[in-house]
Specification:
The complex is a heterodimer.
Chain A lengths: L1 H12 L1 H8 L3 E2 L5 E7 L11 E7 L2 E8 L7 H5 L8 H5 L6 H16 L5 H29 L4 H21 L8 E2 L2 E2 L7 H24 L3 H7 L7 H7 L4 H4 L7 H4 L20 H25 L18 E9 L2 E9 L7 E5 L1 H5 L1 H6 L5 H11 L3 H5 L1
Antiparallel strand pairs in A: 1-2, 2-3, 3-4, 5-6, 7-8, 8-9
Chain B lengths: L12 H13 L5 E3 L2 E5 L5 H11 L4 E9 L3 E9 L5 E9 L4 E3 L8 H12 L2 E3 L36
Parallel strand pairs in B: 2-5, 6-7
Antiparallel strand pairs in B: 1-2, 3-4, 4-5
Helix pairs in contact in B: 1-2
Classes of the chains: A alpha+beta, B alpha/beta.
Chain lengths: ~400, ~160
């Protein structure tokens, strides 16, 4: 009886599920015998709490259904009940591999309504921190990709580098991950006196290590090429259609980077190239990330050379009450376009905050490109999209 | 094959877009501010306006869909990017407690999950959507839409004394 009730309940949820419960080996409309495989939500290769329901024909994926919400905190609702500055530490918890970008996007959106002038030094420090954050995100994501393909070494090197960047962050902001460093109108505090030199030394050492520990180790490796070349290949049209942004879009050859095309903050003052590739597969995604690491180093050096003097906090009142209206912020996070839309009703609490997270949107790729791939390639394609649980679940 | 993007200099393009929209749909209340085109449209022509953007003006990218609960009505903002410096904001408002609007997944497939999110959080139903399930909250035994203003949370802020 209990079993029947369970079946009936599932039937209410979806007709297909009932058939699966009674007969897991079912023939689909093409006469193929397929099975459903549940991957996650707790799986070491799933980048957080993600559940994939894969319909498999032998070892080939026929259909993929993505189930999210295991880390959903409804940040947008919490933000509606807090004062403007109190939302910044929450944005840290969105995409916890790109905290600075999340803070930056939110601050830009609120500043858009306030019409406040940000001191150039504060803007430069924001760009400096965001680029260091990009390094601290791209390096481990390369390492994760290799780990998931079975190579253990790169993740150790990646985390060694990330550790050094976190030490710099700790010296600047006082925290290693959840910084709460950017403020509406500027940044919390000026850089400590020795930090510019430390950052310079660090990026110099990274430049040398990058070639030795990542590029020479990974690129051209036979197993790496066999596992990644042609895997997850998508056309430019497909990628744009699905709304993919960031390295996953640029690896198909679409030349789009918010930092250049929708310039914000201090980015117009620095020179950098937008890295693109033509492969559109996991290997191309890896190459784009390595290229972007080099560009980030370039930006960090330029900022350190040109770092303006002056205040780090604009003229913002302690109690922030933007006029009635809307503010928009858009930044290039390591995973793509992160946009914030804030609606104000004139009080000191946001009326509505909306986050557009790149992980969330890019993950729509899975159901589009997984069919036809082998089961082990699913993990490699996750490495291409590189989603972060806190991001897609808000 | 491949995607062709407009020139990198956005000079004059917002006005060109606005003219394109006006020729087809009227749109008295729309305007250009900097590199942003804002269109205020009737909810029943949203798919037509977005089809104009996609098919005629080649605006490739739907960035997000924001829903704002104005208690009694819902404001929707569709943010479109041409990937080269110009953004188009399509704003509409739906009246009523049970809002319904036509889907745009046929025009911008990326709208799929954005619309599912809007349905999940606000109960806005998108007519013609291929897969109208909740995206975050669980499917069964959960009848609420958390971002509605009528959904009270237990830790509502009590800063009134600070004012």
């Amino acid at each position: 009886m209990l079993e029947q009730e369970r079946v009936a309940e599932s039937a209410a949820l979806s007709g297909r599920a009932t058939e699966r419960l009674t007969n897991p080996y079912l023939r689909n409309e093409f006469g193929l015998e397929t099975i459903d495989l549940n991957v996650g939500p707790q799986h070491p290769a799933m980048h957080g709490l993600l559940r994939l329901i894969l319909e498999l024909d032998g070892e080939t994926v026929v259909r993929c259904d993505t189930v999210m919400g295991y880390l959903h905190r409804c940040q947008e609702k919490i933000a509606e009940n807090r004062m403007y500055p109190a939302v910044i530490p929450l944005t840290d918890r969105l995409d916890y591999f790109a905290n600075m970008h999340m803070e930056h996007g939110y601050c830009l959106a609120v500043e858009d309504m306030l019409d406040v002038e940000i001191p150039p030094r504060a803007d430069a420090i924001r760009v400096l921190m965001c680029e260091l954050m990009r390094l601290a995100s791209h390096l481990p994501s390369t390492g994760f990709l290799m780990l998931e393909l079975g190579a253990f070494t790169p993740i150790l090197y990646a985390f060694r580098e990330r550790e050094r960047i976190q030490n710099i962050f700790e010296a600047v902001t006082g925290a290693r991950m959840m910084f709460h460093y950017l403020r509406i109108g500027g940044v919390k505090a000026d850089l400590p006196a020795d930090i510019p030199e430390r950052i310079w030394e660090y990026v110099e050492s990274l430049e040398a290590n990058l070639q030795r520990d990542f590029v020479d180790l990974i690129e051209g490796n036979e197993i790496f090429v066999a596992r990644t070349r042609g895997v997850g290949r998508m056309s430019q049209e497909k990628a744009v259609e699905i709304g993919v942004t960031g390295p996953a879009l640029r690896c198909t050859g679409v030349d789009f980077d918010i930092r250049r095309d929708y310039p914000y903050s201090w980015y117009p003052n620095v020179e950098f190239d937008v890295i693109t590739d033509t492969g559109g597969d996991v290997e191309a995604g890896y190459r784009v990330r390595i290229g972007e690491i080099k560009q980030s180093i370039r930006i960090v050096k330029q900022v350190l050379e040109k770092l303006p003097e002056g205040e780090v906090m604009g003229d913002v009142s302690r109690r922030i009450r933007p006029p009635e209206g809307e503010g928009f912020g858009r930044v290039e996070s390591p995973r793509g376009e992160f946009a914030v839309h804030v609606v104000s009703d004139g009080s000191d609490v946001p009326y509505r905050v909306h986050y557009r997270d790149p992980s969330f949107v890019n993950m729509q790729l899975l159901q589009e490109i997984l069919p036809g791939h082998y089961l082990p390639d699913v993990i490699a394609i996750m490495g291409l999209i590189d989603p972060v649980s806190g991001g897609w679940d808000k | 094959m491949g995607v062709t993007l407009p020139q990198s200099d956005p000079q004059g393009r917002p006005e060109h877009y606005l003219e394109g929209f006006r020729n087809r749909h009227g749109l008295e209340e729309s305007g250009v501010e900097g590199n942003v085109v804002t269109l205020v449209v009737n909810p029943n022509i949203v798919p037509a306006v977005l089809a104009t953007a996609r098919e005629c003006l080649q605006i490739m990218h739907l960035s997000y869909i924001t829903v704002v609960d104005r208690v009694g009505s819902f404001e929707l903002t569709y943010e479109l990017l041409d990937l080269r410096g110009v953004s188009v904001r399509v704003k509409t408002a739906i009246e009523g407690e049970e809002p319904v609007i036509d889907t745009v997944t046929g025009i911008y497939p990326t709208a799929n999950w954005h619309e599912r999110e809007a349905y999940d959080m606000f109960g806005v139903a998108f007519k013609g959507h291929p897969d109208m399930r909740r995206v975050y909250m669980w499917q069964d035994h959960f009848d609420h839409h958390p971002l509605l203003k009528s959904f009270e949370i237990s830790t509502k802020r009590t800063f009134e004394g600070l004012r």
